[in-house]
Design brief:
heterodimer, A: alpha+beta, Aminopeptidase, 29% strand, globular, B: mainly alpha, two-stranded antiparallel ribbon, 66% helix, binds coenzyme A, Acyl_CoA_acyltransferase (chain A), NatB_acetyltransferase_subunit (chain A), protein-N-terminal amino-acid acetyltransferase activity (chain A), GNAT_dom (chain A)
Chain lengths: 190, 1011
C-alpha cells in the first residue's frame, strides 16, 4: 500500500531499510535536522503496512546566495531534491514518482522556477526515473562525488545536474536540451 | 566568542591568556581592576582563574560563580556573563544543572534589565535553550513577546516554551498543568481569532497563520485539551486541513481522520473519505490528477472502517464502486495509488465478510474456492511481481479459515496462482522459463513466502499459543508428518524448493545481473534468505546434545544457512539482510572475525551506530576481544572492536549539541513541531540502551586487552550515560533496529529477528546488572587506589542495594541473560552484600552479623561452585562456538574479580577481616580453581585447533554424506547441487581460520599469580 506522511525526527532510528542501500548516504544528524528545521513540509516518507519506511524524499526551496547573483552559475528560486530513496523491497511501485511529484507540487505552490537534483553518472536507474518524469540534464559536474560505487578503482564520479521546469518558467528560460555538453566544476555549484 | 570581546586595551591580557600565561594575565587584570572596577574586568579575572590547571583554583572559581545569581543589582554586562559562562564550562564541563542554577538566572536577569534589547534577548534565549535551561528560556520568550508585540513569531515562541517546559523533567510536578494550561489557553485564543477572521489572507498578528502553528495547536490540545475540541479545530474551514492556513499540510488530514474514527463519527467519516477518494481520481483543468495523494491508504482504511461500522450494503457498494473507478484503466490513476485501490478491494471483502455476509460465506466455503481466497489470488496476480505483495497480503491470509488456508496452499503448491504458470514442467518446482525476468522471480518468491506462512509460520505460531505449547507431539496439518512446535519436514521442504528455485533463477548466464546496477540487490535473493531462515529454525530446534560441536545437527543447519548466504552474497553484495543474518550465524559459530567481516559489509555510520551496532557488539567482549578485519581499506584502529565502540561513543558525545543547534534553527524558521521531535531524539539518545552496551563492552574488552589501566569511573565512556542507570527505576531507550532483519513470519507473532536469537538479546535488565558490576569492580580494583572515590562508591553501593529491595518486580524481571551471566550476577550480588557488610562497623559486634555474613558467603561459594560445574560441562569444546567462548570469558571475569575481591576484603577493618577470613580463603581457592579450569579449556581449544583436518570436518558437518534410507526431502541435496566445490572449500577454510583467530583472543584469559 502507499501512504505518505511527514518525516519525523525519530525516523532516523527507523530508516535503515532505505539507508543501508549504498546509493543512499547516511548523513550527520545535523543534516537531517536542519532540513526539518527549515523545510519540514518538503521532507516526506512513504510508509509500509507495519509502519516501516519504504522511502523518503528530502527537499529544499532556495536560491543561490545573493553575492553570486552575477555569476553565470547563479540559481534563481527553485526546489531541490536533496535525497530521494526507496527501500529495495518497495521499488518499482511508483513510490519515487509519487514522492517527487509532491515536491514538484510544493515548488509550484511556492512559485519556484524549477526542480533540480544531482544524480551519479552511473546511476542509470535514477536517471531513468527522472527522465521519465520530464527532467533533463542541465549540466555535468565533474567529479562531484568523491567515490565511485560502480568502480572501486576510481575515486571520483561525475554528477548529472538534472532539472525540470515548473509552471513559473513558462518559456523555458531555465531549461536546456543539450546539458550533457555543459561541464562545470564542483566549486561552481552551491 | 572571547575573541570578539577583546577591546584594544585588553589585548595584552588576552595575549597572555592565549599564551597560557595565566599568572601574567592575572597580574595585568588586577592592575586594571585597581584603576577601575568593572563587571567585565571582574568576570575576566574569574575566567582567567578558571583556565588555571590547579584544582583549588577551579573550586574557588565555582564558589565565586555560585554567589553571582544573588548579587544585587544583578550583573548587567552581557560580555561579563558570557565570560562567566565560559568559566563555568572550564571548571565543570557540560554541567547542565549547575548552568541552570548559575548562568541561567544571570542571563534572565540581564534580559529583564534591558528588555528592549532584542539582540541580547535572542542571544540569551539561544544560550538557555542550548543548555536545556527551559524555564529561563521560557521567561525570555515571554519577555520577547511582551516587548516586541508586532513580532508574530515571539507569540509562538512563548507558547512553545511554556509547553516544552511543562513537558520537561525539569518542570516541578505542580507547575506542569499550569504551564500546559497557559499554553493551551493562549494558543486557543489565537486559533479563535483565525476562526473569526473575515479575511483569511490577511490575518491579525495575534492569530494562527501557518501549518506549523496548526500542528502546534493540535499537539498542545492533544496534551492538555479535550479530544472533541481537537477535532472541532480540524473540522473548521479556517483551521482544518483544507484551510488557507494549512497550505495542504497532509498530517492534518491524517490526524483528522484518526480523530473522527476514535470519536466513532461513522457517517461523517464515510462522507469525508468518499469525497476525498473521488477528488483523488478527478482531473483538474489541465487534465492532471493533482490531488491523487488523497487516495492514501489511510483514507481507504477509514472509508472501509466507516462503511463496515455503518453496516448497510449501500455503503459497501459505494466503496466497491469507488474501487472500481480507481481501477478503471481510463482513470489515469498512477500505479502507486492504483495498488491502494486493489488492496482496498481485498480489505473490503475481508472486513465486510463478517459484518455483512457471515452466512453467505460459510455456504461458499463448502463448495469451490472461497471468495476470500479468490480475492487474494487476484491481488497476487496483479501485484505478485512486487515484493511488497507478500507484506500486503499477509494480514489477510492470517484471517483465512483452516479450509481456506488449505485451498490457498494447494493453489500455491500446484503453481496455478499465476496465469502463465499453466505451462509448468514436472510440477515439482517452476520450470526454468518462469524465472526469466525479475518480475517473474519475485512472483515465485511471493508464492514461496505465502507457502512458508501457511505451512510453517502460522501453524508454529498457533502451536506456541495453544495451552499445550506443542508439548504434545502430533501430526503436522500441512505435511501430515509427526511434528512438535516446529515442523521439521515443512521447513526442509520449503528450504529445498527455495534453493532449487534459486539455482534455476541464478543459472541464466548473468542475463538478469547484467540489467542491474552494481549496487542493486539480486531479485532472487529472497529465495536464498527464505531457505537460510528455514535452516536457522531447524538449527535452533535441534537439541544440543553433549557431543562435540561439529557432530550436532544444530551446527549442520547453521553452517548450511551460513554457506548458502555467503554464496548468495557473492551475487548481491549489497543485500544487508544477508549480512545481518551472517553476523548472527558467525557469532553463534564462534567466528568473531567473520562476523566482523559481515558487519563491515553494512558500512554503518552516524545514527546507524546507535541502531545496529548491537547486532555484533553485544557480548563481543566474550566472543573475540581482538577480532580484526582484514580489509585493507580501513585503518588499523577501525579494525578493532574498541575502535568501533569508540566511534559509536563519539556519536553520543556530539549529538546533544547538534540537536540543540537545530532546535534553535527551528525556532527561527517557525518549525515548532520539529522542536518537540528533536527533543524526543535527544532523550532517546541520552538513554540509549546501545550506549550502555557500548560502554560495558568497551570496558570489558579493554580490561583484557589493556590490563593495568586503572579503571577510573569515567574512562571508557561511563560519563556518556546519565548517572545511576544501574538503578531499577532508570529507563533505557530501546532504539535498536530489529526490523531490518528479513521477516516472513506472521504479523501477529514474534518477528524472525526474535525467533532466530541463539542467545538472549540485549536487555535493560542485563545492562543494569553489568553497569553495577562495573562499579563494584571499581571498588575492589587494585590498580585504582583513590580513597575518596572509593568512599563515594561505597555510598553508592549502599543506595544501590537498598534500591534493589524496593524495585518493582516488573523492572527487575531477569531478561536477556545466559546461564553464565546469571551465575556471574549471583556472584556479584553476594560480593556486593559482603562489601557492604565490611563497612557496617556498628553491626560487626552484633550476634546475627556472623550469621548474615555466613549466608552471603555460602551464596557466593554456591554460585562459584555452579560456575565451576558449568565450565566442567564444556566437555568437548573444540572448535569453540560462541556459547563456549562466552562461558570461558565470563567465568574468567568472575574468577579474576573474585581474586580482587579477596585481596580487597583482606585489607578492611580488622574486626571484619577476622570474621571473613575463613570464608575468603575458601572463596579464593574456588576462584583459582575456576580460573585454572578456564585456562585448561582454552588450552584444549587451542591444541585442538592446532591439529589438521578441520576444513574437512567443516565440510562434512555442513554437507554430511547422505545416509542410506535418509530423508530425500532434506534440503541438503539441493544445497550440494547449488554450491561450487572450490567456493565451499575456500569458505570452510575461512571458518577454520576464524576459529583459530579467536583462540588468540583466549590467550588473554590467564590466572593472576598468587600474591
Ligand atoms: C531511484 C529510485 C529512487 C527509484 O525508486 P522507485 O520507487 O523504484 O521508482 P518508481 O517505481 O517510482 O519508478 C518510476 C519510473 O522510474 C523508472 N525506473 C525505476 N526503476 C527502474 C529500473 N530499475 N530500471 C529502469 N527504470 C526504472 C521507470 O521509468 C519507472 O516507471 P515504471 O515503473 O512505470 O516503468 C530507487 O531505485 C532508489 O532508491 N535508488 C537508490 C537511491 C537513488 O539512486 N536515488 C536517486 C538519486 S537522487
Amino acid at each position: 500500500m502507499t501512504s505518505l506522511r511527514p518525516f519525523h525526527a525519530t525516523d532516523i532510528f527507523k530508516f535503515n531499510p532505505t539507508n543501508l542501500d549504498p546509493l543512499t548516504e547516511t548523513y550527520d544528524l545535523n543534516f537531517y535536522f536542519s532540513y526539518l528545521a527549515r523545510w519540514p513540509h518538503l521532507f516526506n516518507v512513504a510508509e509500509g503496512l507495519d509502519g516501516t519506511i519504504d522511502g523518503y524524499i528530502m527537499g529544499k526551496l532556495e536560491s543561490s546566495p545573493s553575492y553570486y547573483v552575477n555569476s553565470e552559475h547563479y540559481l534563481p528560486f527553485h526546489a531541490h531534491i536533496t535525497a530521494l530513496t526507496v527501500a529495495p523491497h518497495a521499488r518499482r511501485l511508483g513510490l519515487a514518482r509519487t514522492l517527487s511529484s509532491t515536491l514538484e507540487n510544493s515548488g509550484d505552490e511556492y512559485d519556484a522556477w524549477f526542480v533540480d537534483l544531482f544524480v551519479r553518472k552511473s546511476n542509470k536507474v535514477g536517471q531513468a526515473l527522472y527522465k521519465g518524469l520530464g527532467y533533463k540534464v542541465f549540466r555535468v559536474v565533474k567529479e562531484y562525488y568523491v567515490d565511485d560505487l560502480s568502480d572501486d578503482t576510481k575515486d571520483g564520479e561525475d554528477a548529472w545536474d538534472m532539472r525540470k521546469r515548473l509552471k513559473r518558467d513558462v518559456s523555458g528560460i531555465h531549461a536546456r536540451d543539450d546539458g550533457e555538453n555543459y561541464v562545470v566544476r564542483p566549486e561552481d555549484v552551491w | 566568542m572571547a575573541d570578539q570581546l577583546r577591546a584594544s586595551q585588553d589585548a595584552p591580557i588576552w595575549n597572555a591568556i592565549e599564551a597560557n600565561n595565566f599568572k601574567q594575565a592575572l597580574k595585568l587584570v588586577d592592575k586594571r581592576l585597581a584603576k577601575r572596577h568593572t563587571e567585565y574586568l571582574e568576570a575576566l579575572k574569574i575566567y582567567i582563574r578558571s583556565r588555571s590547571p590547579q584544582v583549588p583554583e577551579k573550586n574557588a572559581v565555582l564558589l565565586h560563580l555560585e554567589e553571582l545569581p544573588e548579587r544585587k543589582p544583578p550583573v548587567a554586562d552581557i560580555e561579563a556573563i558570557e565570560l562567566y559562562d565560559e568559566a563555568l564550562e572550564e571548571v565543570l564541563p557540560k554541567s547542565g544543572e549547575t548552568w541552570e542554577r548559575i548562568i541561567g538566572p544571570l542571563r534572565w536577569q540581564c534580559v529583564k534589565a534591558q528588555p528592549k534589547n532584542e539582540d541580547l534577548s535572542l542571544k540569551c534565549f539561544q544560550a538557555c535553550l542550548s543548555k536545556g535551561a527551559l524555564d529561563h528560556a521560557r521567561q525570555i520568550a515571554n519577555s520577547l513577546e511582551k516587548n516586541f508585540p508586532k513580532n508574530h513569531s515571539y507569540i509562538f515562541w512563548n507558547i512553545t516554551m511554556m509547553y516544552l517546559f511543562s513537558t520537561s523533567q525539569n518542570c516541578p510536578e505542580n507547575q506542569k498543568r499550569i504551564w500546559g494550561g497557559l499554553a493551551l489557553g493562549q494558543i486557543g485564543k489565537l486559533a479563535g481569532v483565525t476562526k473569526e477572521a473575515q479575511d483569511q489572507k490577511q490575518l491579525p498578528i495575534r492569530s494562527v497563520q501557518t501549518p506549523q502553528e496548526l500542528l502546534l495547536l493540535d499537539r498542545i490540545t492533544a496534551a492538555y485539551g479535550k479530544p472533541e475540541v481537537r477535532l472541532e479545530y480540524l473540522q473548521s474551514t479556517q483551521l482544518g486541513p483544507e484551510s488557507i492556513v494549512a497550505k495542504g499540510e497532509w498530517q492534518l488530514w491524517r490526524t483528522k481522520l484518526q480523530l473522527m474514527e476514535t470519536a466513532q463519527k461513522w457517517q461523517e467519516l464515510f462522507d469525508t473519505t468518499a469525497a476525498l477518494l473521488k477528488r483523488a481520481r478527478t482531473k483538474d483543468d489541465s487534465s492532471q490528477l493533482s490531488e491523487s495523494q488523497l487516495s492514501d491508504w489511510i483514507v481507504w482504511e477509514a472509508s472501509i472502517r466507516s462503511a463496515v461500522e455503518l453496516g448497510s450494503h449501500q455503503y459497501k457498494s459505494q466503496v466497491q464502486a469507488e474501487i472500481e473507478a480507481h481501477l478503471d484503466p481510463a482513470s489515469g490513476v498512477d500505479k502507486s495509488w492504483r495498488r491502494n485501490a486493489s488492496l482496498a478491494e481485498v480489505k473490503l471483502l475481508f472486513d465486510s465478510s463478517t459484518a455483512f455476509s457471515r452466512l453467505q460465506l460459510s455456504s461458499e466455503e463448502g463448495n469451490g474456492t472461497s471468495k476470500r481466497v479468490a480475492a487474494i489470488v487476484k491481488y497476487l496476480r496483479g501485484y505478485g511481481k512486487a515484493s511488497t505483495a507478500y507484506n500486503d497480503l499477509r494480514p489477510f491470509v492470517e484471517r483465512l479459515s483452516p479450509t481456506e488456508r488449505k485451498q490457498l496452499l494447494e493453489s500455491l503448491k500446484n503453481n496455478n496462482v499465476f496465469l502463465d504458470v499453466q505451462k509448468l514442467g514436472d510440477g515439482k518446482y517452476p520450470a526454468k522459463q518462469d524465472h526469466s525476468t525479475a518480475g517473474q522471480i519475485t512472483q515465485v518468491i511471493n508464492a514461496y513466502k505465502l507457502r512458508y506462512l501457511l505451512s510453517c509460520a502460522l501453524p508454529e505460531y498457533g502451536r506456541t499459543q495453544s495451552p499445550a505449547k506443542g508439548l504434545v507431539e502430533g501430526n503436522c496439518n500441512s505435511c501430515s508428518w509427526p511434528c512438535g512446535l516446529v515442523c521439521k519436514h515443512c521447513l526442509e521442504d520449503i528450504a529445498r524448493e527455495a534453493i532449487q528455485s534459486y539455482r534455476i533463477a541464478m543459472d541464466d548466464d548473468g542475463k538478469i545481473s547484467q540489467t542491474l546496477l552494481k549496487t542493486d540487490q539480486h531479485p532472487a535473493d529472497d529465495l536464498s534468505i527464505l531457505a537460510a531462515m528455514c535452516f536457522i529454525k531447524l538449527s535452533l530446534m535441534s537439541a544440543e546434545k553433549e557431543t562435540e560441536p561439529l557432530a550436532r545437527a544444530s551446527a549442520t543447519y547453521a553452517l548450511q544457512a551460513t554457506v548458502l548466504l555467503e554464496s548468495a552474497w557473492l551475487h548481491s553484495k549489497h543485500n544487508f539482510q544477508m549480512s545481518l543474518l551472517l553476523i548472527r550465524l558467525y557469532k553463534y559459530l564462534g567466528c568473531g572475525s567473520l562476523a566482523m567481516r559481515a558487519y563491515h559489509r553494512l558500512s554503518l555510520k552516524q545514527i546507524q551506530l546507535d541502531t545496529l551496532t548491537y547486532t555484533i557488539f553485544d557480548r563481543f567482549s566474550s566472543l573475540d576481544v581482538r577480532a580484526s578485519n582484514q580489509t585493507s581499506a580501513i585503518s588499523s584502529k577501525e579494525r578493532t572492536p574498541l575502535g568501533h565502540l569508540q566511534e559509536q561513543q563519539d556519536l553520543y558525545l556530539s549529538s546533544y549539541e547538534k540537536i540543540t543547534k537545530n532546535s534553535w534553527l527551528s525556532f527561527k524558521h517557525g518549525s515548532y513541531n520539529s522542536i518537540f521531535e528533536m527533543r524526543e531524539v535527544s532523550e532517546k539518545l541520552s538513554n540509549s540502551i546501545a550506549a550502555a552496551m557500548s560502554v560495558i563492552e568497551s570496558r570489558k574488552i579493554s580490561r583484557l586487552t589493556e590490563p593495568g589501566t586503572p579503571l577510573t569511573e569515567i574512562s571508557h565512556g561511563f560519563d556518556l550515560l546519565p548517572p545511576n542507570m544501574e538503578f531499577p527505576e532508570s529507563t533505557f531507550s530501546d532504539n535498536l533496529d530489529y526490523e531490518s532483519f528479513p521477516n516472513f513470519e506472521t504479523s501477529i507473532g514474534p518477528r524472525f529477528e526474535q525467533l532466530s536469537r541463539y542467545i538472549p538479546s540485549l536487555s535493560a535488565y542485563r545492562c543494569r546488572l553489568n553497569l553495577a558490576a562495573e562499579k563494584l569492580m571499581l571498588i575492589i580494583d587494585p590498580s585504582a587506589d583513590v580513597a575518596q572515590e572509593k568512599e563515594l562508591l561505597h555510598l553508592w553501593l549502599k543506595q544501590y542495594l537498598d534500591s534493589q529491595k524496593q524495585s518493582e518486580p516488573a523492572r527487575a524481571k531477569p531478561e536477556g541473560m545466559t546461564r553464565s551471566e546469571e551465575l556471574a550476577a549471583a556472584t556479584y550480588h553476594a560480593v556486593a552484600l559482603i562489601l557492604r557488610a565490611s563497612r557496617e562497623q556498628d553491626q560487626w559486634a552484633e550476634t546475627d552479623f556472623q550469621t548474615k555474613l555466613n549466608k552471603y558467603n555460602t551464596d557466593l561459594l554456591e554460585s562459584l561452585e555452579e560456575h565451576l560445574a558449568l565450565i566442567k560441562a564444556l566437555k568437548e569444546p573444540v572448535p569453540a562456538f560462541g556459547n563456549t567462548l562466552h562461558a570461558l570469558y565470563t567465568a574468567h571475569e568472575v574468577g579474576r574479580t573474585i581474586l580482587h575481591f579477596c585481596k580487597y576484603v583482606s585489607k578492611q577493618g580488622k574486626g571484619f577481616v577476622e570474621k571473613q577470613k575463613e570464608a575468603t580463603a575458601k572463596i579464593e581457592e574456588l576462584a583459582r580453581k575456576l580460573l585454572q579450569l578456564v585456562v585448561e579449556n582454552c588450552g584444549v581449544v587451542k591444541k585442538g585447533l592446532d591439529e589438521g583436518g578441520w576444513i574437512d570436518k567443516v565440510l562434512e558437518c555442513t554437507l554430511p554424506e547422505a545416509q542410506e534410507g535418509g530423508d530425500d526431502r532434506a534440503a541438503m541435496g539441493a544445497l550440494r547441487e547449488l554450491l561450487d566445490e572450490n567456493f565451499l572449500e575456500e569458505w570452510a577454510g575461512e571458518v577454520v581460520e576464524s576459529w583459530r583467530e579467536a583462540v588468540v583472543g583466549l590467550s588473554y584469559l590467564k590466572t593472576p599469580p598468587k600474591a
